[in-house]
């Protein structure tokens, strides 16, 4: 009886498709010197914020620009901040060719994270025995991760696909990350990241606002200067207003 020797040998590897989370850097200028300066300024107070995160460079906002992009300079700057540029998307043919020559892989099918859609529920109010129906938007319900121990410098907690509730202090150098909202019922002195996968409606709440860095949906604010007196060391929240990260007091808790 003939034996197929090939089928009896077990393969040493398998080839499968995979999806990896990457950080998207969406360029809004082809002036790489300006981009590098802005990046350095944004991360000046926290040079170790990234930890060899893979990066996708998104060129959709500059694809019509006639100016060339200095990809070697851009990639060197990104690597200096502990990221690993690996892919590019959305550029003109010339931009994509230049990016490929610099070592980036085209990723035309990559999509950026979008805020989760909101559900609509009907709320019924009875006023003087007259039924009033109105539509009220509410967020899709997320699970919640609760941390009840202090977070010391160098420690990190990530609530993937969830809100994060921290019941103890987040020390300077510690980091809390959530795909949803971040609630800290104690002093926030480290780094807090909400909407890590692009949810612009996410917020950061704390009973004592003294952060090292705040980020919502990729919009960062490093606290180079003292906070205003109405939020420094007091109950406050951080939220997005367009592309601006706003820090404001929680009046009900003061």
From TrEMBL:
Pfam families named in the record: MinC_C, MinC_N
Assigned keywords, A-Z: Cell cycle, Cell division, Septation
Presence of keyword Glycosyltransferase: no
Domain Septum formation inhibitor MinC N-terminal: 13-85
Transmembrane parts of this sequence: none
Keyword Signal: no
InterPro entries given in the database record: CAP/MinC_C (IPR016098), MinC (IPR013033), MinC_C_sf (IPR036145), MinC_N (IPR007874), Septum_form_inhib_MinC_C (IPR005526)
Domain Septum formation inhibitor MinC C-terminal: 146-248
Job of this protein: Cell division inhibitor that blocks the formation of polar Z ring septums. Rapidly oscillates between the poles of the cell to destabilize FtsZ filaments that have formed before they mature into polar Z rings. Prevents FtsZ polymerization.
Family: Belongs to the MinC family.
Subunit (UniProt): Interacts with MinD and FtsZ.
Stated name of the protein: Probable septum site-determining protein MinC
Protein species of origin: Comamonas nitrativorans
């Amino acid at each position: 009886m003939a034996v197929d020797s090939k089928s009896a040998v077990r393969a040493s590897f398998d080839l499968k498709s995979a999806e990896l989370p990457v950080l998207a850097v969406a360029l809004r200028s082809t002036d790489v010197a300006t981009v590098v300066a802005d990046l350095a300024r944004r991360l000046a107070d926290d040079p170790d914020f990234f930890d060899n995160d893979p990066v996708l460079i998104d060129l959709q906002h500059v694809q019509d620009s006639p100016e060339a992009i200095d990809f070697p300079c851009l990639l060197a700057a990104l690597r200096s901040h502990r990221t690993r540029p690996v892919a590019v998307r959305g550029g003109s043919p010339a931009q994509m060719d230049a990016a490929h020559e610099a070592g980036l892989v085209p990723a035309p099918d990559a999509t950026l994270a979008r805020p989760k859609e909101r559900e609509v529920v009907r709320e019924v109010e009875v006023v003087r025995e007259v039924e009033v129906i109105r539509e009220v938007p509410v967020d899709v319900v997320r699970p919640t991760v609760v941390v009840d121990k202090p977070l010391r410098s160098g420690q990190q907690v990530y609530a993937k696909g969830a809100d994060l509730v921290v019941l103890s202090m987040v020390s300077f150098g510690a980091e809390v990350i959530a795909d949803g909202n971040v609630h800290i019922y104690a002093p926030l002195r480290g780094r807090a990241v909400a909407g890590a996968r692009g949810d612009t409606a996410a917020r950061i709440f704390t009973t004592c606002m003294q952060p090292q860095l705040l980020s919502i949906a990729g919009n960062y604010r490093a606290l180079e200067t003292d906070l205003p007196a109405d939020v420094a060391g007091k109950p406050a929240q951080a939220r997005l207003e367009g592309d601006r990260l706003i820090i404001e007091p929680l009046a009900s808790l003061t």
